[in-house]
Description:
The protein is of the alpha+beta class. A six-stranded antiparallel sheet has the order 2-3-1-9-8-10. The protein has a six-stranded antiparallel sheet with strand order 4-5-6-7-11-12. Helix 5 (165-173) crosses helix 17 (439-446), helix 7 runs antiparallel to helix 19 and helix 13 crosses helix 14. The two termini are 35 Å apart.
Amino acid sequence: xxxxxxxxxxxxxxxxxxxxxxxxxxxxxxxxxxxxxxxxxxxxxxxxxxxxxxxxxxxxxxxxxxxxxxxxxxxxxxxxxxxxxxxxxxxxxxxxxxxxxxxxxxxxxxxxxxxxxxxxxxxxxxxxxxxxxxxxxxxxxxxxxxxxxxxxxxxxxxxxxxxxxxxxxxxxxxxxxxxxxxxxxxxxxxxxxxxxxxxxxxxxxxxxxxxxxxxxxxxxxxxxxxxxxxxxxxxxxxxxxxxxxxxxxxxxxxxxxxxxxxxxxxxxxxxxxxxxxxxxxxxxxxxxxxxxxxxxxxxxxxxxxxxxxxxxxxxxxxxxxxxxxxxxxxxxxxxxxxxxxxxxxxxxxxxxxxxxxxxxxxxxxxxxxxxxxxxxxxxxxxxxxxxxxxxxxxxxxxxxxxxxxxxxxxxxxxxxxxxxxxxxxxxxxxxxxxxxxxxxxxxxxxxxxxxxxxxxxxxxxxxxxxxxxxxxxxxxxxxxxxxxxxxxxxxxxxxxxxxxxxxxxxxxxxxxxxxxxxxxxxxxxxxxxxxxxxxxxxxxxxxxxxxxxxxxxxxxxxxxxxxxxxxxxxxxxxxxxxxxxxxxxxxxxxxxxxxxxxxxxxxxxxxxxxxxxxxxxxxxxxxxxxxxxxxxxxx
Length: 635
């Protein structure tokens, strides 16, 4: 992760200017840190590190700096979104000609944060639409302090932070993902695609990029054209990211998405050395034969790593401090393995197939039917989608129609989209009955749902239902997976080419019906990459392996630790989790209640996150002075 600290203040505010001067002087004394941009009202400092983590790119005429990795946006006359070389030339890397946020969005894409001085009193800070580079901020004596790592911010000696208990509750329930708020009250996050503008003494935040704007444009409804565009854009994005690396690790599950990324790496013009890594566990989580077929086809080395069935979950208590809990089920095991392998092979990037399910249309269901019923209810095309969906879901056509109509009605009666509403009102699942959450915690959360609806989902009145899976996937991906609790800041970065902005924008313009043919999902992707993948991958169907069985078994093996950390822990004490439910769950055979296993693992991360902050300091309520106590109302 590229590490930076930036200071923004109004030049006429004497207190802020003095505070910024003091903070900058402190930063100048830090080893390996240097100033990337310095002007009245805006200072940006970065930490020296491997170039694979990104770099700083000065803007023309001393207007500011872009931090991270940036590629040119090329749009050929053929209408395909991307082809050819998108990597910036060395001359362009030294100086980018960008005058405002809209201009960088029109000409470039990548993973970046931009600091721009537009005039003496006007400053802008923008985060790229799909940027892995975090952009957190807090205020100190009139200075807005931006940073990528909370530990760097704490090292500045700012006042201690406090726990945002409403956000902790929302993370624990896992029904919605947070917006600008974090689980530290005094820290906020600049979201992907968002721009903060300082106009004199006023500070305003707005979205310069929103996925909803792409779904309202004319759709790419021709299957042949969509297939060509999907292949060109996907390969272009993979090749662009590969161009920054001579050696990479590819986490190859053996599924379609990671196999496509592996194929793209194998054909990248710079020909990076690729070492594939496959995690497996006995049973449904063993996909080694698929991963081997892909690695063999492309002549790549493959390393097979069995998920350790004896993992001691106490190691989760050693997670890094972050601004919010990071919900990653297998990170405590997988991330150290990836980092060690990368060091052994001198790899500078760890590639994966994340977000492929969403952009390639894995879970096509009643949303696609609802989309067709809204657009053309009595067409032959709608009938075909109905039949394809019935085959895919192994349901009757009438059951599919009923679910789609119910979904359509639910969508039309609300302007915002909340996953909590979706689970309870569309899927018909009673969250209280299937989780360890307390009733009073659910009630307190439900009263604040609008607070936890991502801005991208705040107005879905014009959004085709088939795009909710993509937008929801983007929301989850950008808010919960970009900061790793078990990797060191200087470990090789994780790179997800399928989350690239050009590919996401293309996916949003493809009608969901095109992804389903003869009951098989991801039909366009299978056709687009039919010449690159082994037949075993193309014909796998809808089955997917994963770590779910492994998770339930390690929870069972760690039952004594779970009783200790939960029953004596913060979440039960603060009545976020229901003590009686927790006791019942831990008294049962955990391997037979797999529906709760993923939630329990996520709640373990939240409990560990709270423990980490209280044990290491940095909180104003370190002595429990500000924490809610038994009998106090949850607010």
